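User: Please predict structures.

Assistant: First:
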Amino acid sequence: MDGAMAAAPGSGLGYDASARQIQSHVFAYQRSPDQDRTTPQRHQVVIVGAGPVGLSLAIDLAQRGRKVLLLDNDDKLSSGSRAICFAKRTLEIWDRLGLGDPACAKGVEWNVGKVWFRDDLLYRFDLLPEPGHQRPAFINLQQYYAEAFLAVRAAELPGIEIRWKHSVAALEQQDEGLLLGIDTPEGRYQIAADYVAACDGPRSTLRGLLGLESKGRVFQDRFLIADVKMAADFPAERWFWFDPPFHPNQSVLLHRQPDGVWRIDFQLGWDADPDEEKKPERIKPRVDAMMQQALGYAPPYELEWASVYTFACQRMNKFRHGRVLFAGDCAHGVSPFGARGANSGVQDADNLAWKLDLVLRGQAPDALLDSYAAEREAAADENILNSTRATDFITPKSEISRLFRDAVLDLAGDYSFARRIVNSGRLSVPATLRDSALNTPDQDSFTGGMLPGAAAADAPLLKDGRPQWLLRQFGQGFTLLVFGPAPAWAAGLELQTVCIGTSGLEDAEGWAQKRYDALPGTAYLLRPDQHVCARWRNPTQALLANALRHARGALI
């Protein structure tokens, strides 16, 4: 409990904290008893980096009964809005971690996007066109709010100790674990660890200490982020302009955030001076021109935050190096169009937590952690591919490329085939882990997207006559989802059984049956991270037991 109290935000920082309270909050440095030990104290799991990925991983492990030490070299949450688009899958993960409700209550929900070319609205799209989902396709929420909610939730769990202003300065891989040198305002000390999760961002210290690097492509273009606070009549939608009159030959993106704050991304070109473009006198004319075009007038506004960034799509070659596992931006980085950065990092944490827990319990081989690396490397490749294609379309690098793009945009207003080619950023969806070594291949015929490797789809249910949601029925471990009564033999296996159509749980609107292509007796085996790993029309005890062994890494 002492560790949790040390991590507690305190002094007014809670789920209802204001942006000003969050941005000004300083977490107190505290001296740890580990600093006075002559022999390094051993910790099972050390997480480095208290951003959205590190905090999500710490909470997940703590809910599984793990004691976690989380180190951060700073004493504050992120400055500026930074990542703002959190996808439906991230919200479902945060539901399981206990902070989905406050995040959604604060965030701005949206499903609809609109694309313009010059003066013309080409088309609109809906990322969640059918009903029957608890969470929206996205919420917009400033990263500092997301981190604050995660920090508050972490403080509620007794298994998490957060040490602020504790920086990893040395790392040595040993036969039985790791030795870390930690720098503090009072000097250096050492600790030992069974495993270290590196979640310390794109300029990862741990990556550097191991002599590793990320490789990929840096795009020769720059973008300005301007967060402005104003009373404006824009709806909660994603608006994207190609070559608008108010910013010719470039692109612009607009998002609504909480507190009356609007995120505007202006493409600048490679020759732009980042320091000059961040100055208010450079930003104001751009914002005024956009408002005049979009609203017909320029309302009063206040510039909250500005930054200039360069596109890059890069990743580490391997996400696992012995007992060090890399997650989030230190493992992979993508351009921001598509909202694939933070969302992919939270999915890294979702993938890693249950595997690390089973390995530490001795219920799975160490090789299960290799599946973390393999699965999330494949997901990173998918994100990088989509981000690279979006960047190439948004910022054509030759006259021929620009002519092709503009021809596609000219056609997109009238022809659906051209709209499929337009790429203003393919927005984040959970990776389907089709080639995972943990999957059991289908033996029966199914239709739809719930194949082995897919993240489970949500659906509305009735439980004893009251509205419920399917994903809320799943616990922390493996789950057998059955459409019909539970097989008698399932009680002898180490898993939870959720039965639709019996035990008071009803698919009254038919969405679960539709999304899972379910016939009576159909069953799905779900991993602790809610990914499908096997499915059958009529499973047997032997089939299920073998699939469970497979999903725990016994056959890797």
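Second:
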Amino acid sequence: MCGIVGYIGPQEKKKILLDGLQELEYRGYDSAGIAVIADGKLQHFKAVGKLKNLREKAAGFRSEGPGAAIGHTRWATHGKPTELNAHPHVGAFSYVVHNGIIENYRELKEELEAKGVRFLSQTDTETVVHLFEQKIKEGLEPFDAFKATIDRLEGAYAILLISEAAPETIFFAKNGSPLLIAFDAEEIYFASSDTAVIGHAKEAYYLEDGEYGYARPGEVRLFGPGGEKPISTQPLPADKAMAQKDGYRFFMEKEIYEQSTVISDTMLGRVLEDRVEFEELDPGLFEGIDAIKICACGTSYHAGLTGAYLLERMAKIPCQVEIASEFRYKEPLLTPDTLFITISQSGETADTLEALKMAKRAGLRSLSICNVDNSSIVRESDAAILTRAGIEKGVASTKAFATQVMVLWMMTLYLGQKRGTLEAETLQIELDAMRRTPKALLVEEKLHERIHRLSKRYLHGHGFFYIGRDLFYPLALEGALKLKEISYLHAEGYPAGEMKHGPIALADAELFTIALMPRTLLYDKIKSNVEELSARDATILAISPEEFELADDFIRIRHAEHPMLEFFEMMVVTQMLALEISIRLGNDVDMPRNLAKSVTVE
């Protein structure tokens, strides 16, 4: 969610900070700010709302020459979105930016207030800068004061701090929230995601939990629990093309269209002529494994539900799917014969990361399915499969979901091969279907135009029901989530067979039913369910290769011989429908209200 950028060097610092924050705004924010120290003096600017407001506030400010600078986009956790609560937070002579949550901030705040410190904001972050300055007043040198400060903090944090007590220096610390240091000759950059520094720096170091240190021109000192550590960098990507809109109206629209390409990247080198292979996996990971537990949140949870159907059906292995935020507190029974799989687009999802740590403490082997290498979840896992979806800027996930489902499908075949549960003929049918998936994900102009025309009829009503069976039940959940995320209309996903156990009471002409009706899987069953809704005058939009005579509206998908090909094509239709409805309603599709791309707090 919140974004961090920092810079040490001679360039115009305001521009570097604002441009870096612009690259991170897709993560979601409600205020922003920057602070620069030059000629030994601090200056800062803050604004509520979009970055353009901050740019206007800082329009007359220049900051060339030696110095240090930090910037932040904030998504409110403690305190409302106001300028006082926006980062950077100020002390008497220092500024701090922070991602995460300081869990013991009330205790620290009371302690500091008892010493006469006056707080300006309602945030947990402000305790950090005041605690640092208190340590300076007690006689500690700046770096010792910073170390003493972070030693007192409990919770998750990525912190950058600058101070007149140490001009041209940035103090940094990381625990449970992402932070990296990037380099270009003598210039030093900091960011919460490499998106902000691509094009500026050539290589980066991704901090581990418990690491901290300081940077000044031409020098970075890194420390961990065992003392000082060397920094081993890795190259940064050089091309930002995937992060640009390429003529599309919204990043989400571009990302829907990209799915056909990125799914090929996901399969590259993995889907072979006669088998699925994952070079990144040690076969020993699965030895002695008799069950799988998948843990995820939101869209990734829906991908996990889809995977569970596939894993049990073809790999013949029991699979349970857990919502990470619930899993953490249910005192789950964890046995060492269970493989613990986490799914996350960003690899920084706080609840999923904590669930993974619980599983590891219980001795379970772990595998992550993730889009971001070097992310916290990837580093914490015993093994990882990267989805290769590329940068996804739309808050409502599309191509990340598609690639997660594809990885789970591939993993099903991989395990089926190892466990001997797939006959050679069945395996070949699955592999052939996989190879046809990119075509199923192509968005045809004719289809897009039809969805655009239909969308004007779905801007009102008292709600949407997305219904499906089997694999298409998780897709109904995901379709409903996409609509509610960006249109703000009420939508629910439901197993079609459960409608008569309560929800059918809502059926009338103002209830819109999106019926997922695949020809290859339980078609007659779901047809019967939709007929029940139609008989109660619900408005029906059927998505199917077979025309349904009782449908008020109908979107035809191609005839396919495999359920997953119908799944992916219907997925595109539900994504496009949510997109077009949201656009007609005048919403900001890429940055819907109250949502963040990467949920890095509980």
